[in-house]
Design brief:
Rossmann fold; 42% helix; globular
């Protein structure tokens, strides 16, 4: 299903920029967390899927991303605290996160802040899950200032052309990347690196949480898992490890039908 070209503007709730679809009084509500540098509008393809038409979907731009108001604290831990409050406010039955959004959702699970079903798209759990060049680019800001962040945003914007969407829709997605402030990117990504390097057996902790989860990666794309992390999660009775064939960098935009089907699986795990 092709998303509407006339995307409604986000509504703002206590500094959260939210986009909502589906019946307001739907039986189930899902909170969607975009990736770094992406806005709530990046979930438009998923929100347009017929399989989710009767589900209340709320996408929330993370603070400091895609031009959203800057947070006082860019740490993953602070994002997790803030999103936990948002989950309560909107009454979310399940949480879906992509890339940075998935990292925040994973932190919520391993710290016991969230116990509902969770879908982690392209999540990274330790430094080796991210390409060395990406980590080096973040560190280079200590010498080069914000310049590497400008290069990173431009590079991400150029990759939008791989998404099977209309020129207008691709332009919307590129505009998301252009709205990012280099300072916000630098502070958020340095905080992300610190979180990765505090590697504390997150795969094991995810399994120990008992939370129903779906961990989704493409064979090549954004984020990944080490062999040990993958073995741990594949052996976990309540974890579903999904590998999408081929090269996919924007899972919500390039594979919306598959992601919608996985969200439906997650909702089926919500206690009645």
């Amino acid at each position: 299903m092709t998303p509407s070209a006339a995307t409604p503007p986000p509504r703002v709730v206590a500094d959260w920029q939210l986009r909502e679809s589906g019946p307001p009084a739907a039986e189930r509500t899902v909170l969607l967390l975009p990736g770094g540098m992406c806005s709530s509008g990046s979930y438009e393809e998923v929100m347009a899927q017929p399989a989710l038409a009767q589900t209340r979907l709320i996408a929330a731009t993370l603070p400091g991303q895609a031009g959203a108001p800057s947070p006082d604290d860019y740490s993953v831990e602070n994002y997790a605290r803030s999103v936990t409050e948002l989950v309560r406010k909107v009454g979310a039955d399940a949480v879906v996160g992509f890339s940075m959004g998935a990292v925040v959702a994973a932190e919520m699970v391993v710290t016991g802040r969230y116990a509902g079903p969770v879908v982690l798209l392209a999540v990274s759990l330790s430094p080796k899950d991210e390409p060395a060049f990406f980590r080096a680019m973040i560190r280079s800001t200590r010498v080069l200032g914000n310049l590497p962040m400008k290069v990173l945003a431009a590079g991400a914007g150029s990759m939008v052309k791989r998404i099977p969407a209309s020129p207008d829709r691709q332009s919307q997605l590129r505009e998301d990347f252009r709205r990012n402030r280099p300072r916000d990117m630098r502070l958020a990504l340095h905080a992300y690196l610190r979180w990765l390097h505090r590697d504390d057996g997150r795969a094991e902790r995810l399994c120990e949480s008992g939370v129903a989860m779906w961990i989704v990666h493409a064979e090549k794309g954004d984020g990944g898992l080490t062999a040990d992390e993958r073995r741990t999660l594949e052996a976990c009775s309540h974890a579903n490890v999904v590998t999408i064939p081929g090269s996919v960098f924007f899972l919500p935009n390039e594979m919306p039908e598959r992601i919608a089907a996985i969200i439906c699986e997650a909702l089926a795990a919500v206690p009645s």
